[in-house]
C-alpha cells in the first residue's frame, strides 16, 4: 500500500502563518503552488484543512505567560487561577481576561 509523502516543514510554516481570514481552499492552492516551486508533492485539500485547523487551535490556546500577565499586570484574574492552570484544571471564563475559545453547544 502506498502512502502520501510527509508534508515539508516549509509548507507547514506557510500553513501556520496563514491569516485568520484565509479559507482552506485558498490556502490549499497557495501551498500547492509553493510545493510545485519547491519540487514537492502537492498536499491534499483534506490534509491542509486539518493542519490549518490544528494551527488555529494552537493559536487560540491560553499560555502560562498570558495567565501570569492577566493575574499580575492586568489584574483580570484572581491569583488562584494560576494554581488551577499549573494543576491542569480548566480555567473559568473571566470577562476581561484572555480565555480559551468556548465550545459551541451541539
What's the arrangement of secondary structure elements?
Elements lengths: L8 H8 L7 H15 L6 H16 L3 H10 L6 H7 L20
Helix pairs in contact: 2-3, 4-5
Task: Provide key terms for this protein.
5 helices; 106 residues; mainly alpha
Task: Briefly note the structural class of the backbone.
Answer: mainly alpha
Helix content: 40-55%
The low-confidence runs, each spanning 5 or more residues with pLDDT under 50, are none
**Strand content of the residues, in percent?**
under 5%
| Separation, N- and C-terminal Cα atoms | 37 Å
Roughly what is the average pLDDT, rounded to an integer? 91
Rg of Cα set: 19 Å
Reading the helices and strands in chain order gives HHHHH
* Envelope shape: elongated
Tally of individual helices? 5
Characterize the biggest β-sheet.
none
Number of domains: 2
The total count of strands amounts to: 0
How would you describe the overall organization of this protein?
The chain folds into two domains: 9-60, no CATH class; 62-99, no CATH class. Helix content is 53%, strand content 0%. The protein is built from five helices and no strands. It has helices at 9-16, 24-38, 45-60, 64-73, 80-86. Helix 2 packs across helix 3 and helix 4 runs antiparallel to helix 5 (80-86). The model has no long low-confidence stretch (mean pLDDT 91).
Amino acid at each position: 500500500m502506498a502512502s502520501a509523502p510527509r508534508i515539508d516543514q516549509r509548507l507547514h510554516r506557510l500553513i501556520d502563518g496563514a491569516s485568520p481570514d484565509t479559507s482552506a481552499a485558498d490556502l490549499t492552492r497557495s501551498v500547492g503552488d509553493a510545493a510545485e516551486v519547491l519540487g514537492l508533492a502537492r498536499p491534499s485539500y483534506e490534509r491542509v484543512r486539518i493542519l490549518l485547523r490544528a494551527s488555529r487551535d494552537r493559536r487560540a490556546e491560553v499560555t502560562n505567560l498570558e495567565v501570569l500577565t492577566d493575574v499580575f499586570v492586568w489584574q483580570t484574574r484572581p491569583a488562584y487561577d494560576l494554581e488551577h492552570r499549573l494543576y491542569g484544571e480548566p480555567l473559568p471564563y473571566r470577562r476581561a481576561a484572555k480565555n480559551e475559545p468556548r465550545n459551541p453547544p451541539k
